[in-house]
Amino acid sequence: GAAMVARALWALLAALRAGWCLLPQSGYLHPDEFFQAPEVMAGDILNLQVYYPWEFLSSAPCRTVVFPLMTSGVTYWVIKSLQQLDICSSCINSYTLLVSPRLLFTIFSFILDYSVYQLAPFWGADPWKALVLLAGSYVTLVFYTRTFTNTLEGLLFALLMVLVSSRKSSGQSAEPTSSSLIGVITTAGFFNRPTFLAFALMPLLYWAGLIADSQKSIKTFLNHFLKFILCACFTASVFITADTFYFTSMGLDNLYSTNKSSLIDAIVQLHDKMVVTPFNFLSYNLNPHNLALHGTHPRVTHFTVNGVMLFGILHVLAISAGFKMLKKYVHQLMLVRWCYRGPPGLLVHSERSPTLLLFYFVPLAFLSLFSHQEPRFLIPLILPLVLFSASPSRAVKWKLLIVLFNLLGALLFGCLHQGGLIPCLFHLEQLIHSPESSSHPRHYTLLFAHTYMPPRSLLNIKKTDVHVEVIDMAGAGEETLCQTVKQRASNFTCSECHIFIIIPGTVRATITKCGVSFKNETLIFPHLSMEDPPQIPILSSGNWRSQLGLYILQLNR
């Protein structure tokens, strides 16, 4: 009966994951969910006006183009083809531009569920309990349905764990046959995010230990190692070749239009222009000055803040279990040392829970060495954590707390956090492409202030269209903001010019000090800006909706 309830609950949560993606989710987690793949591919494949981030523009690019092409690139190519074939006349719009890459990632997220189901018996966890913990986590519902490189990192980590857990359920060692695949996945993960090595370290050591335990011959061990190295090198060469062609051909258009002779020339010159994005990523991020530009945090932020923010009580219970096992291990080492007859079976190496904890805490410790620490960096760790937490004796008495925590996390990050910006872009896209605008060409100036970076691609404006100007003021101060608004107002001459200012309700009062008037205003609710948080006394007054909203203000002539 309990298993049937768990299966039904998992199915419900899986449907919620897919349905919420299609709805779509309005929360905006971090600019990287747009600017590390969809925005770049929308510019290259759909020829839309976009903002290319520094990782793709610098002389030493830090992001591989392979995964963006395989994910957002494929989905955009599909909707472009559907429109060109007249299967649907308006396939390309703000909704499909947002949802199609997310839908692909949501489908991929079920790799996590598959991995948990495969791994649970091996690691002594209840499969359906682990699946419910996974599917009910807001990390799965929100982060794993977004176009982050961290999401792909988590999926590759899950596949790696499945490949290395190759012992039979009876406890006997199985013949490790996945050396080649392990090499491919490790290298692909490294090119996606070099931090993948922190996650791959324990699975690779565990895999090497399994081979050493199951094979007597050093020749066989070397054979597995050679397969791993050869496949890793081949995969690396594929990524390096693809990145080199992309970044030396100035984007996809030039790449596809290159004739045969110039391709041969490019191949000849590859040794002079080799693009190895992970090395550029590492050289940039190992420089403390560069990391400081993106924000520095105390080294314990992952352990004390981010882990709790993502996983709640499960993170706390894992830390508690880790300390208890460490204490037990030290105690047993002392017993073995003092009593020479201490049986080796006492050592915790024979248990699987400590190994799972190592799969969780070793990557956490390595990521904590860097001063720039964001919560999303830890999302791959959900897999070992739910497997550890799903043993029959754990997490049962915390059910209510787990449910409330994940409801709050889903509401905060899936709906509220910067939640007005995506609906605002939807609204502006409809306005710009309205029949009135098409029949009478108009010029639009869109000024964003105190919001996350607006993904220009969602406005669905062709690169050839010069009638729309986007200005991102980021977190500009009152003086700079007013100066820009006044300057735009003074240049407000043409009859078909429209200036819109997009600003959170918490800084709405700043604009009123600029001495300009507005023709109309639209309030999009909800929108929570953590950079400009609402004041509690105002929230308790009748003005709370304004404080939790995003304004679209149209400047009066």
From TrEMBL:
- Which Gene Ontology CC terms are recorded? endoplasmic reticulum membrane
Compartmental location: Endoplasmic reticulum membrane
Q: Where is the signal peptide?
A: 1-21
Gene name of the encoded protein: Pigz
Report the main location listed first in the record.
endoplasmic reticulum
Q: Which domain of life is it from?
A: Eukaryota
Where are its TM segments located?
190-212, 224-247, 303-323, 403-428
Membrane disposition? Multi-pass membrane protein
Q: What is the protein name given in its UniProt record?
A: Mannosyltransferase
User: Which EC number(s) are documented for this chain?
Assistant: 2.4.1.-
Question: What keywords tag this UniProt record?
Answer: Endoplasmic reticulum, Glycosyltransferase, GPI-anchor biosynthesis, Membrane, Signal, Transferase, Transmembrane, Transmembrane helix
What is the similarity comment for this entry? Belongs to the glycosyltransferase 22 family. PIGZ subfamily.
Q: Which Pfam families match?
A: Glyco_transf_22
Q: In which pathway does it act?
A: Glycolipid biosynthesis; glycosylphosphatidylinositol-anchor biosynthesis
**GO function terms (MF aspect):** alpha-1,2-mannosyltransferase activity
GO biological process, alphabetically ordered: GPI anchor biosynthetic process
